[in-house]
Amino acid sequence: MEINLFLDPVNLNALPVSASRPGQHRIGEKILIHTDKSDFPDLSHTRVAIVGVLEERLSVNNAGCSTAPDHVRASLYQLFHHWPQLEVADLGNIRAGHHVDDTYFALNQVIAMLIRSKIIPIIIGGSQDLTYAMYQAYENIGQLVNIVSVDPLFDLGQDEEKFDAQSYLGRIILHQPNFLFNFTNLGYQTYLVDHYAVDLMNNLLFDVYRLGHLKSRIEDCEPAVRNADILSFDLSAIRAADAPGNGNAGPNGFTGEEACRVVRYAGLSDKISSIGFFEYNPLFDQNRVTAELIAQMIWYFLDGVANRTGDIPEKDSPDFARYIVQIEGHNEDIVFLRSKKTNRWWLDLSFGRNDREKYEKHHFVPCTKEDYDQALKEEVPDRWWQFFQKLM
User: 300 and 340 share a domain?
Assistant: First the structure.
């Protein structure tokens, strides 16, 4: 099946007018763009592909977000291209289907085919329920996945029968067969989340990070993001002062700079294979501030991808130093790996496992130097316990 069957070309003449800056080699001049005046791009050397999705029927308090893709494009195309070896293509838009499930099918087919071709899709929505279609793409190829969501809510929903942009995670958890290995929330705001939901996330052995914690230690996002296959970014996680273009924007949230830092972590991760930006609504934007911010976030993601180092742990790889910590009264050795390329750290949970084929890519868990220091103090890191229990 050819993915161009699902994609409408970009109408360059219809893009909103965006500020032009002096200089050469803008992104809009350097990437491959699927337009009505050109053939569908040859993707044989493409590393990243942009896909817009014109779907908002399950949005919550955010009607109008389906028009986001072209507004983001207008700002993105005006930024400057700094990566001669990074080939990027803009494949156009997936139009809303007759039913929402039709849109999901088109999106998951496109993503699955791109991932099989080792091309990283950047999805510009539309509402965040499209994360469910991203998840379905990995189900199509039989891959267990880790999802990281940057969101002030958990999007679990309250009613099993109701499905919308604020309940997609509940649908993923209940879906059978289930291909979700781990879920991480970055930036939840406690006063927006009931206590039951926090307990449920902990009981499911999911990772949840309060906004206040990450505001004081934004670097804690890095190992969490490095462990993801999918990153889903809800624009309502950014404070309204920096991203007013959202029907659910609030006074608190990440700053624009922090958001850019998180997605650059994602770009640098050799594991992340898809990313989505959701819930931008041009109707609420002011002076195109939010469109400009999303464009800059995509720029930082591309910059991260261009600077990937192939830093993936493998058993007995000479590129990693191995540290074994024995804790009194603890039967299992705690094994750490440190990359000699980047000084990043992982926990190695591969020893003694007979489930290697199914969970192989989940045996190496990103962590921090602080986790290693904690183990040296005879304390088992929480991150080790959590993933050890998942693999039992």
Answer: no
Average pLDDT, rounded, for the chain: 93
DSSP secondary structure letter of residue 22: S
Residues 228 and 357 in one domain: no
**Structural tokens at position 90:** 């803009």
Residue with tokens 């992982």: 346
**CATH code for the domain in which residue 17 is found:** 3.40.800.10
Secondary structure of residue 338 in the 3-state scheme? strand
How many structural domains does the chain have? 2
Note the pLDDT of residue 1.
Answer: 59
Question: Can you state the percent helix, strand and coil of the chain, rounding each to 5?
Answer: 40, 20, 45
**Alpha-carbon torsion, ordered 190, 191, 194, 199, to 10 deg:** 20
pLDDT digits (tens, 9 = 90+) for 315-371: 788 999 999 999 988 888 899 999 999 999 999 988 755 555 566 677 899 999 999
Q: How far apart are CA 245 and CA 258, in angstroms?
A: 17
* pLDDT at residue number 271: 96
DSSP designation for 4: G
Residue 284 and residue 147 in one domain: yes
Token reading at 380:
């088992």
Q: Quick one: pLDDT band at residue 172, thresholds 50, 70, 90?
A: very high
Q: Which two tokens stand for residue 247?
A: 């029907």
**Does pTM surpass 0.90?**
yes
Pairing, β 334-339 against β 345-348: antiparallel
Whole-number Cα distances in Å, 130 to 16, 135, 189, 255, 265: 24, 9, 22, 24, 22
For 155, other C-beta atoms within 10 Å of its C-beta total: 25
**For 310-325, how does the pLDDT look when each residue is reduced to its tens digit (9 = 90+)?**
999 987 889 999 999 9
* Beta strands across the sheet bearing 180-188: 32-33, 88-94, 48-53, 120-124, 274-278, 230-234, 145-150, 180-188, 207-210
Q: Where are the beta strands (DSSP E) in the chain?
A: 32-33, 48-53, 88-94, 120-124, 145-150, 180-188, 207-210, 230-234, 274-278, 320-325, 334-339, 345-348, 364-367
Token readout for 324 is: 């074994």
